Q: What sequence folds into this?
């Protein structure tokens, strides 16, 4: 109960701050949209290549956009040494991890809700009926990204040039999530169902559960190191 | 309530910021931590607050060893940083609500208004903290710790940003906090002010505890110990 209560407290504080500043969500939204337009003008997706290329392009946009959000994740705590105030308090470190992960997840999902349909429109894709399945995969992939991203963001919090360091440490570790997500989306776009990609979906689910648990357990060490 | 520090030491790489510090403080102790720049005052406070881990040694508060994974122990410790530890984009009231909720002070609604009135900020409770001056932020911090009532309150150079009224507010809060049996440890370069309030003084020099005595009147041993760090021809109460 304590964990959930603290998570709610920090998450509602972060959402209130974001509602007032709007810097993270607006930056992510404009960058994601900008990337889509760049892809749109750079690539001409032939119908037979859509299933192979669309997921990779989409996830490239999500990764870059999400990294922008991660770079800002502890911004409020960096100002006025508020992180020290949190660490000084009886706040459960696992709750801090869950709150920051949820906050980043909410921002990314908001951006994805706009970016995905826009991608469909820009590339003139017809499979609108597959969007719910694709959203499910995207949700699982985004959870994986946010969970690992929050851990890495906290690890690099006190590092010099952290904005440069964060993608360097995060992207290699994200390979399983990216691979699984792209394979699942590819299968849905090709066959209209997960089919053989169910094992990738299970991998994605396993990744999310494992790193979520690990994050809650080790976040006190991560944030204080 | 008792604070026991045993052979505390902190090294940053090869540099020892603090070496072999042992202190034993009973309830109601008001300690002034004095010393020149780089003596280790802030390091000592951060160690006591649990914001950094000691290289060696241990800290016990009320019989409980202070460790990062002990939220109950953390609940008992406050750190009054004059213009820090507050969210700029939250209002004064929202900041206090947030922190009192974290510390599980459920009777907060009435108390927040009362605490803000005490520090003269009841008219500005809906202003963003970022719009306040450093002195007013310090008053918000005083209100915060008035509400949270920590068993051990640490202060690092609290006088720098406060005006005359603010200093009076801070000092009356600290005195009443001590009278309630809590422990206060204050690092400051305002020696005469710190000595007026404290009932014990510590002098740190190059990371070592060079002086630790209960206050006396007169206090020749303190004058002698502290005289080393003063500019030529000055005395500590000048």
A:
């Amino acid at each position: 109960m304590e964990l959930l209560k603290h998570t709610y407290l920090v998450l509602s504080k972060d959402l209130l701050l974001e509602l007032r500043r709007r810097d993270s969500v607006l930056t992510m939204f404009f960058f994601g949209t900008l990337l889509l337009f760049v892809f749109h003008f750079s690539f001409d997706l032939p119908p037979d290549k859509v299933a192979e290329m669309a997921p990779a392009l989409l996830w490239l946009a999500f990764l870059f956009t999400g990294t922008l959000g991660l770079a800002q994740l502890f911004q409020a705590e960096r100002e006025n040494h508020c992180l020290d105030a949190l660490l000084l308090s009886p706040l459960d470190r696992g709750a801090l991890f869950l709150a920051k992960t949820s906050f980043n997840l909410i921002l990314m999902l908001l951006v994805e809700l706009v970016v995905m349909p826009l991608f469909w429109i820009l590339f003139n894709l017809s499979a609108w009926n597959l969007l719910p399945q694709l959203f499910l995969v995207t949700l699982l992939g985004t959870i994986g990204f946010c969970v690992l991203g929050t851990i890495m963001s906290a690890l690099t919090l006190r590092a010099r040039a952290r904005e440069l360091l964060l993608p360097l440490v995060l992207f290699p570790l994200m390979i399983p999530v990216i691979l699984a997500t792209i394979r699942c989306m590819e299968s849905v776009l090709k066959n209209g169902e997960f089919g053989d990609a169910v094992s990738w979906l299970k991998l994605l689910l396993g990744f999310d559960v494992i790193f979520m648990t690990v994050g809650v357990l080790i976040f006190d060490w991560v944030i204080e190191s | 309530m008792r604070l026991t520090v045993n052979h505390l030491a902190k090294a940053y790489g090869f540099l020892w910021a603090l070496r072999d510090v042992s202190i034993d403080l009973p309830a109601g102790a008001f300690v002034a931590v004095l010393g020149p720049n780089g003596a280790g005052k802030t390091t000592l406070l951060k160690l006591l607050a649990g914001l950094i881990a000691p290289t060696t040694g241990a800290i016990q508060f009320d019989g409980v060893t202070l460790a990062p994974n002990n939220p109950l122990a953390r609940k008992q410790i406050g750190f009054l940083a004059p213009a820090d530890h507050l969210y700029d984009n939250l209002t004064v009231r929202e900041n206090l609500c947030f922190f009192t909720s974290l510390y599980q002070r459920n009777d907060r609604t009435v108390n927040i208004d009362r605490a803000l009135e005490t520090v003269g900020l009841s008219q500005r409770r809906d202003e963003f903290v970022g719009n306040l001056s450093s002195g007013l932020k310090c008053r918000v911090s005083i209100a915060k710790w008035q509400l949270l009532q920590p068993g051990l309150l640490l202060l690092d150079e609290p006088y720098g940003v406060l005006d005359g009224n603010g200093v009076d507010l801070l000092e009356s809060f600290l005195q009443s906090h001590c009278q309630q049996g809590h422990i206060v440890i204050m690092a400051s370069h305002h020696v005469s002010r710190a000595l007026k309030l404290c009932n014990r003084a510590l002098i740190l020099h190059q990371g070592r505890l060079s002086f630790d005595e209960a206050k006396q009147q007169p206090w020749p041993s303190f004058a002698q110990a502290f005289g080393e760090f003063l500019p030529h021809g000055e005395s500590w109460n000048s």
Q: What stands out?
A: Chain B has a mean pLDDT of 88. Chain B is about 35% helix and 25% strand. The two ends of chain B are 35 Å apart (CA to CA). Chain B has two domains: 1-76+151-238, 83-149.
